[in-house]
Amino acid sequence: MAASEDFRKLFELALPDHAVDSDRIPWVPQGERVWYKPLRFDLANGRWVNLLKVAGKGKVNRHRHSSQVLGYCIQGSWHYPERDWIARPGTFIYEPPGDIHTLVVEGADDMITLFLLEGVIQYLDDQDNVVSQDDVFTKLDRYHAFCQREGIEPVDLRY
Questions:
Q1: What is the model's pLDDT at position 2?
Q2: Predicted structure pTM score
Q3: In the list 55, 78, 119, 120, which could disulfide-bond 67, CB 3.0-4.6 Å?
């Protein structure tokens, strides 16, 4: 009986389930030919989930992550010139912490990939100097600022 009481107490502390209608969330500009659609901001753990869209012939500049990244390609294709694989619809991606790469879309079609991220993304120049960085807080701020500029009511994605 004690074990079931412990589980009940544990479940009382957990977040309730949450369903997000992604059609209500705008694509937020991230760079030239690059947008993200946030789906979750976990401020307590420094994690966020978003869809990333890169227009044909676009790229996400060279960068590294402080923590692992998980991804799932939904539409289009992309690759890292630093690697020998290509992500296509249905491809699951694991990136280890510290990996340096440049996301490139070669074709004319847009790419959309679901990414689960945590920690910091550092954008690098060719000499590995940090030129800018993002984390859950900068992504949340950019989302709110974009919604405010565009007159869009932001969906609360902090859960």
A1: 67
A2: 0.91
A3: 119
